[in-house]
Each structure stands twice: as structure tokens, then as C-alpha cells.
Amino acid sequence: MTEPDRLELGTDPEEGSVPAETVEELTRERDEYLDSLRRLKAEFDNFRKRTESERAAQAARARESLVKELLPVLDDLERALEAAEQHEEAKLEDGVRLVHRALADVLARTGLAEIETDGAFDPHVHEALLAQPVEGAEPGSVVEVLQKGYRLGDRVLRPARVVVAE
User: Checking DSSP bridges between strand 126-132 and strand 160-165, what pairing results, if any?
Assistant: First the structure.
């Protein structure tokens, strides 16, 4: 039993078959499209790999830059520890202040900023750990900071942990 829509190759076109030249042309066209698709896939894979490699290299450069900035802070901390071994309290305090200032400067250059805690409680940047009645304080205002909060650019890295007036 033969299907009426089925065409045989290489026979007379008037009898319902497709000429061999047409089949060869369609096969060649199909092969060209398949080859083109394979090349496009390979190009996309190469692009994806190159992008991942560039992203990893950029992250490595950023880490390297930050570490270079922190090395002087490490040096200052070592000097402060040496002063502590010699029991020179004044030098120790000065050394710790120097380290703190140097670290704060490095972080500020990278875009780190302290979250303001003066004024009203803001749930977007503050975390209320306790609410207590405080005379003379407006309800909802920050009365004490338990831990400073920081943002990097517009993004909150750590909310400020605060006590809020009832």
C-alpha cells in the first residue's frame, strides 16, 4: 500500500515524483543551514567563555586592588602590636587610631559610607533591636546606636542596629 502524497526520487515529475536535482539542491541547502547553525553555536559558546573569563579577571583585579590598599593598614597594625609588646600604652593607642583611620580611608575610597543614625528611625537602613521610653525624645527617633551600619554606594551592606524611643 503506497501513500498518495509520497513522492519517489528521480522519476518523472508528471507522475508525482521530485527530480533528483531538486532533492540534491534542498539537501545542499539544508547542509548549509546546519553548518551555519553549528558555527553560530560555536561562536556563542566562545563568546560565553570569553565573557566568563573577562568577568573572573575583573574580579581578580578588584580583589588585588583592594588588597594593595589594605597592605599599609596591615603594616600599621603590626607596628601597633610591636608597641603593645613593649608596653608603651600611648604608642599603642596612637597606633590603633592610625590603623583605624587608615582602614576607614581605604574603605571610604571604595565607596563605603556610614549610615546616618541621627533623627527618625528608617526601617530601610536601621534595624531596631529595642524600643524603650526615653524622656525628651520624640517617639520613633533613634536614641542609641548599638552597631554602626554601612552602605556601599546605594546598597545597604549592613543596617545600623539601634534603640528607638517609644
Answer: parallel
